Amino acid sequence: MALTSKVAIVTGAAQGLGRGFSEILLQNGAKVALLDVNETVGKSLKETFDNQYGPDKSLFLSCNVESEEQLKAAFQKTIQTFGRPHIMCNNAGIINESNWEKAVSINLMGVVRGTYLALEHMNKLTGGQGGVVVNVGSLAGLGPLPCTPVYTATKHGVVGFTRAMAAASDISGYGIRFNVICPAFVQTDILNALYQPEKTGQFSSLIENTKKLIEMYGIIEVPDVSKNFLQLVTDETKNGEALAVLQKGCSYVTFPAL
Ligand SMILES: NC(=O)C1=CN([C@@H]2O[C@H](COP(=O)(O)OP(=O)(O)OC[C@H]3O[C@@H](n4cnc5c(N)ncnc54)[C@H](O)[C@@H]3O)[C@@H](O)[C@H]2O)C=CC1
Ligand SMILES: CCCCCC(=O)/C=C/C=C\C/C=C\C/C=C\CCCC(=O)O
Q1: Are 176 and 123 in contact (CB under 8 A)?
Q2: I need a labelling partner for 81 at 20 to 30 A (CA). Which of 35, 38, 148, 251 fits?
Q3: CA 173–ligand 1 middle distance (angstroms)
Q4: Which ligand has an atom closest to residue 18 CA?
Q5: Ligand 2 centroid vs 21 CA: distance in angstroms?
Q6: Which tens digits make up the pLDDT trace of 198-243?
Q7: Which letter does DSSP use for residue 121 in this model?
Q8: Distance CA 125, CA 132 (A)
Q9: Which helix (H) or strand (E) holds 165?
């Protein structure tokens, strides 16, 4: 899938992986709606992107993925400005084992909200033009990260949800591909959760175990994840795939055939 003039929506786009995914889409000619709750960082990123890619290539929209209303409004504004979306990346995510309901609401329910809105606007069966949804899981969506049981659960949920949507799309003919990217530790602000006991709550005592896992897996840089993300967006043969991204390389996950 060539990206020139394609329209993309990325949640949690202001910094970290969302910023990296947005940038690689812009570099490849797409127009990107940058959605985030952090207006200060989001607006400043939009200025940076204006200078690099031109003022009409991106759009910052203040949007909390916990709010169906805000997400709906962000889709409407994107469509008014750039036209209907071809690419949706549900990236926004947090670690909060103390307020774990919030983690579920953002990491899992936010992905479901964003995916269903993408389906509404992209489904070929209802007048859409098809496209691709890439959800952001984690290696913690494929195995346990002991210091964050609820985060682990939400990411397993994202993997299962994405695979089921891909199968539904295949069977029904939505013309939309659904894939999930599952990185190991990446150099972004979320890693600071390790040193914030309020984020890991009752599991903050597992800090040494987490440090060992980080030592074992290493820390990946954002651009290395972005290039794998691009593969899931552009490779039209990929639907229902979970792509594990490790420092040593990436691989498509083989799930047990049941
Ligand atoms: N950095 C890592 O080691 C890994 C991160 N991930 C996932 O990558 C995704 C992005 O995280 P990072 O870039 O690492 O972290 P980050 O903390 O740097 O970025 C997260 C972004 O999401 C935004 N955000 C948070 N809550 C939001 C909400 N309710 N609505 C809209 N935006 C919201 C934040 O303002 C921020 O811009 C998350 O889903 C995370 O779980 C997955 C595997 C590894
Ligand atoms: C401080 C926590 C940062 C969390 C960000 C994140 O999502 C990072 C996850 C990195 C690794 C997860 C660790 C362990 C996962 C366990 C097993 C993986 C098994 C993979 C498989 O294919 O079976």
Answers
A1: yes
A2: 38
A3: 31
A4: 1
A5: 20
A6: 999 999 999 999 999 999 999 999 999 999 999 999 999 999 999 9
A7: H
A8: 15
A9: helix 149-172
Task: Tell me which residue of 5, 8, 26, 174 sits closest to 90, measured CA to CA.
Answer: 8
CA distance linking residue 181 with residue 30, whole number of Å: 20
Contact 55, 92 (CB under 8 A): no
Placement of tokens 């290493």 in the chain: 218
Residue 184 CA to ligand 2 centre (angstroms): 5
Structure tokens at 1: 């899938």
pLDDT band per the 50, 70, 90 thresholds, residue 144: very high
Give residue-wise pLDDT tens across range 78-119: 999 999 999 999 999 999 999 999 999 999 999 999 999 999
C-beta of 189 in contact with ligand 1 (< 6 A): yes
- The CATH number of 7-245 is which of 3.30.565.10, 3.40.50.720, 3.90.1590.10, 3.10.20.30? 3.40.50.720
CA of 63, nearest ligand number = 1
Residue nearest to atom 16 of ligand 2 (CA): 143
Show Cβ contacts of residue 171 under 8 Å, excluding neighbours closer than 6 positions. Answer: none
**Distance (Å, rounded) from C-alpha 137 to C-alpha 160?**
10
Q: Are 164 and 111 in contact (CB under 8 A)?
A: no
Q: Which sequence spans correspond to the domains of the chain?
A: 7-245
**What is the rounded distance in angstroms from the CA atom of residue 157 to the CA atom of residue 154?**
5
pLDDT at 57: 98
Any catalytic annotation for residue 151?
yes
Where does residue 89 rank: exposed (0-12), middle (13-18), buried (19+ CB within 10 A)? buried
Looking at residue 172, its amino acid is S
Ligand 1 pocket residue status of 186, Cβ below 6 Å: yes
